[in-house]
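[audit] Reproducing an earlier prediction to check determinism. Same input, same settings, fresh worker. If the tokens differ from the archived copy the diff job will pick it up downstream; this log only records the rerun itself.
[audit] input (286 residues):
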Amino acid sequence: MATKTVKNGLYMPNYGIFGDIHFLIQLAQLAETHGWDGFFLWDHIAYKNDEGHTVNVADPWVALTAIAIKTQSIRIGTTVTSLPRRRPWKLARETASLDQLCGGRLILGVGMGLGQGEWDDLGEETDLVKRGQMLDEGLDVLTGLWTGDPFSYDGQHYHIDDAQFLPRPQQQPHIPIWVGGFWPNKRPFQRMARWDGMIPLFEEEGPQVFKEGVRYVQQQRTSSDLDFDIVKIGVSQPDMDVSPWVEAGITWWLELLMPEVYGFQPGDEAAQQVFIDLIKQGPSIT
């Protein structure tokens, strides 16, 4: 039995069966009814399955807006948005508006982005060093514009001259930012330490290596703020011993709803009922 409470969220692609916003609304409402704490979407622009066929994709911000209107208390967000391919001032406006709409329930997950196809095909920046720079600058721009005060910025990739965005997000001092990245790359983990939460990914899974990544971030942090979130993505089992993960420091468990993990193709509608039933069972992590 875990010794502290862990929040439970659902984590799913925004493509395939989840490319239907009506279905996403249904799942989010069920999740809120059955005790889940969060509902999080991936942020793909386009997607092809393993056979090279294009599948349906839902814009996550349109989907989250619809979900915000149809729910009351569940936290919502993206995990993660590839900030280097988003104009940060546009995202600042979208997220501030959405946070106002949902009553301060938004969490913004960010990262550099995976999947070269979505970058090459659309003429986006493919150099990982530059994308890392754009991510850091983009976060500066987001939080600067969220203040609601006149804001100027002169970075390598972004330049702003005395812009002011109102209204501010409902959450202050800013919308919580979770940062994703792969261990043992130190740069993304240093970035995690500067914000509000970490979504660490590992080539070899396990509580011990997870704890190693968490320990590194904690050493980098200049604040002992207890609100810092440590997010674990996984597929739980009814008899699963979560204690090693709690000891590793997790504050959120995100249940992965991915058709491929359950033996389906991304667009296989037969998977819909599987995920409906899973959500109705409620969280298994306590």
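[audit] rerun output stored. Observation attached for the diff report: Residues 233 and 254 are 5 Å apart (CA to CA).
[audit] end
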